[in-house]
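Q: What would this chain look like folded?
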Amino acid sequence: MIFDKFEPWRLLQMIEFDFEPSYFEIWKNGRMSATDKTKCKIVAEIFEVNEIENVLRDDRIQRMRITFNDPILFEELAHENIFDILITSNDRLQYLIVPNNTDKNHPSFEIAKRAIGPTRYEKNFKKRTLLLQFIFFQWPIG
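A: My prediction, written as structure tokens:
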């Protein structure tokens, strides 16, 4: 299998989608902590922001809500996760929030702040809430 290649740090327009993956991977601290088969449905939908005071840029009035329905994963992940932007990374698409101030210390926040600037003044992440979400596209070789 090969992965797509993208020019990094390009802002993309978010679109709504849904799909049913056949398996999942959970990564923590740079290591895969779980993988298994799944029959869940993942749904991504755009919604309007109600908390305008926490939006740093005029073009960030919409956000993406990504939900899934696999009860096995509920112990590890929040059923619903909200993201501000979609960007390209070398071999993946990345949904993320870039808070100016946060309760989490993650290197991707500082890198993203320097590359594209913050998308919110502040974000305190609840337990099991994703800090970012990657989407990979795999293509068979040959």
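The chain has one domain: 2-139.
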